[in-house]
Amino acid sequence: MVPRKLRLSEGLLPQRYIRISLWISVRLGASLWLSFFVLSCQPSGNRLNPKAPKEAYNTTEMEVRNERFLSTVHVPVSIALGDVERQINAQVNGLIYEDNSLEDNNRDQFMTKVWKRGTILVTAQDSLFHFTVPLRIWVKAGMSVLGFTQYKETEFEIDLRFKTKFDLDRDWSVHTQTQADGYGWVRRPTISVVGVNIPITNFVGRMIDKNLGDITKTIDQQVRRNVDLRTPVLKAWNTLREPYLLSEKYRTYLQVVPKRVLITPLRFEGRVIRATIGIEGYTLTTTGTKPDVHPAVSLPDLTVVSQVKDDFQIGLLSEASYPEVAKIAAEEFVGKSFSFSDNRYTVTITSMDLYGQNDNLIIKAGIKGTINGDVYLRGRPYYDAHDQTISLKDLQFDLDTKNVLARSASWLLKGTFARTLEKQLTIPVGSQIADMQKRLQQQLKNNQLAKGVVINGQIDEIKPDQVYLTPTALLAVVNAHGRINVKVEGLQ
C-alpha cells in the first residue's frame, strides 16, 4: 500500500521544477522568434531584395531635339552684267534730265533736255562699273552778238561715259558713287546764224561739263532705285527657314533659324558680278507636325566680311524607347544561365527591365538559381560609331545591390555577369541614322527651291555626340558635318 502522503503528491511537480521549465520555455520561444526574425531578414530561399535605384532624368526628349548648332549657309550670288543692263534700260527711258530755266544757275542762259538715245552699256573692271550712256540732247542757249542776247537752239548726239563704285549699305540698299569719264561726239552741235551753220562744240562742251554733276547724281539715283539685291536674298532667306521633311517614318524635320547675314566685297569677273553671302543661324531637328513658319518681310542688317565659311552641322537623332530596349535585352538574355566557382553556383536570367537615372542606364535583371530575386546594374550608354549601336560602358552592380551580394552571394560580384551584359547588350540604331542621312543628302542635292534659287550640299562626315536618357527613350545624337550652298542667279 502506498503511503497517503505519497498519494497526495501524485501529479504535482515541485515548484522549483516548474520555474526551471517555465524559464526553458521562454528561452526556447525567444530563440524560435529570433531564428524566424533572422531568417526573414535573409533571402527567403536565398531571395534577393535590394533597393531599386531611383528613376531620374536630366533632360527631356524635346530639349534634346531642339538642341541647336550654329552653322553658316553659303550663298554664292552671281549677277550677270546683262541683267544689270536689262534692269537699268527697263527703267531709264525717254527724257532723263531737263533744265527748263534760263535764269537758274546764276542766270546761265542755258536750258537743256536729255533723252536716252539707245541701249545703256555696262562693263566692269577693277571693282568699278563703267557705263556708256547714249544721249540725244536739246539745248537752248543765250548768245551775245554785238551786245544783244540771242537765243539759239540745237540738237546733237553724244555718248557719255561714267565710272561707278558700287557698295551695299547695312540696310541692303545699293550705294553708288558715279564720276564722269569723258564723252564722245556722235553728232556735233551747230547753230544757224544768217543761214550759216556755226559749230558750237566748245561752248556746249563747257555747258555739259558744268552739268555733269547733276547727270551723275541722276545716274546714282537710278541705280540705287533699280538694282535690287534685297529681293533675291530675302527669297533665299525665307526658303532656308522653311522646314524640310527628313524622315516621313519618324516625322523628322530639318529647320534652319537664320540670325545674321554676312557678305564679301563684290568681285567683277568678266561679265559677271560675284559675291558670297553667308546666312548664319541655327540648325535643328524637330519631330511631329511640320513647324509653322511665317515668311519674313525684312532682312537683318548686312555685315561685310572678308570670307564666308561654307560649313554646317546638324544633329541627327535616333530613338530607342525603353520598352523597345527592354525587349531587345530580353530576347538576348532571358533564359541565359551563368555558372560561378567551378559550377558550384548558377543563376538564370528570368526578366529584364530598363530605365534611366540621370546619365546612367539602370538594368533590372530578375534571376533564379542558387539565389533568386532582382539585381540592379548601372552603366553609361554611348553611341558606338563603328557598330552603329547604343552600347554600355562601366556597367557594374548598383551600390545597394553590391552591398546585398557582398553579404549573401559575393561569388556573383566576382563573376562575368556584369561584363557579359556590358559586352552583349547593344541596341542597333544605325538604320535610323543612315535613313535620315540619306534623306538629308537628297534634300541637299541640286534642289531647286524656287526660280533662280538652287540648293546644293554635301555631308562630309558623321561624328558621334552622345546618348541622352529622357523620360521616354534613349536618344543617340550624331553630328552631320558638311557644306551647303544656295545659289542665287540673276535679278528677277
Structural summary, described in words:
With 492 residues, this protein is an alpha+beta fold. The protein is 28% helix and 47% strand. It has twelve helices and 25 strands. The protein has helices at 4-9, 15-41, 61-65, 81-91, 104-107, 201-226, 230-241, 322-333, 399-408, 410-414, 417-424, 430-443; strands at 47-48, 69-80, 95-99, 110-116, 121-125, 128-145, 148-168, 174-187, 190-193, 196-199, 244-247, 252-263, 267-269, 272-287, 302-304, 311-321, 337-340, 345-357, 360-369, 372-384, 389-397, 427-428, 447-450, 453-469, 473-489. The strands form four sheets. Strands 2, 11, 12, 13, 14, 15, 16, 23, 24 and 25 form a ten-stranded mixed beta sheet that branches.
Write the layout of secondary structure elements.
Elements (H helix, E strand, L loop, with lengths): L3 H6 L5 H27 L5 E2 L12 H5 L3 E12 H11 L3 E5 L4 H4 L2 E7 L4 E5 L2 E18 L2 E21 L5 E14 L2 E4 L2 E4 L1 H26 L3 H12 L2 E4 L4 E12 L3 E3 L2 E16 L14 E3 L6 E11 H12 L3 E4 L4 E13 L2 E10 L2 E13 L4 E9 L1 H10 L1 H5 L2 H8 L2 E2 L1 H14 L3 E4 L2 E17 L3 E17 L3
Parallel strand pairs: 1-20, 2-25, 12-15
Antiparallel strand pairs: 2-14, 3-4, 4-6, 5-6, 6-7, 7-8, 9-10, 11-12, 12-14, 13-14, 16-25, 17-18, 18-19, 19-20, 20-21, 21-22, 23-24, 24-25
